[in-house]
Design a protein that fits this description.
Layout lengths: L1 E3 L6 E3 L8 E2 L6 E2 L3 E4 L2 E4 L18 E4 L2 E4 H7 L16 E3 L2 E3 L21 E3 L5 E3 L3
Antiparallel strand pairs: 1-2, 3-4, 5-6, 7-8, 9-10, 11-12
Length: 138
């Protein structure tokens, strides 16, 4: 904006800065309104999402940070759980453990009959020297 003072004795130039336009730390686009701030960085609400599952994180829920990654509470729990050697998914609750490896009961099958094991059958499983799992009845 340029203007003269009342005596028209000098020209002055001023720039107006729109302080509401922030730049999103995730997508690098302008945020015209409704932003989130996390660790002095601005985000669109839809850009504040879990680095693991990509779900938008609500500001009222628990989340964690791992370096530059934001991780929702659900994924943070599963990150710290042992993974099944067969399906690579987190194992919650009962699991089979052999040689420091975890397995879902339903992922591990009897080497003879091919039937998956079930939770509660831990005492009915025989492990051979080669690492095969068998039902005691097979």
């Amino acid at each position: 904006l340029s203007y003269y003072n009342e005596y028209k004795s000098y020209l002055r130039t001023c720039s107006f800065i729109n302080m509401t336009n922030k730049i999103c730390a995730k997508c690098s686009q302008a945020i015209p309104n409704n932003w989130l701030i996390f660790e002095d960085r601005y985000y669109h609400a839809q850009c504040f999402n879990c680095s693991s599952c990509r779900r938008v994180i609500d500001v009222r829920e628990t989340f964690n940070q791992n370096g530059a990654q934001i991780i929702c509470g659900n994924c943070n729990v599963s990150v710290n759980l042992p993974k099944c050697l067969i399906c690579r998914q987190p194992v919650q609750g009962q699991r089979l453990i052999y040689m420091n490896q975890s397995f879902h009961f339903s992922c591990k099958k009897c080497a003879r009959c091919g039937v998956p094991f079930q939770e509660g059958q831990a005492n009915d499983i025989k492990i051979l020297q080669n690492g095969d799992f068998l039902h005691k009845t097979c």
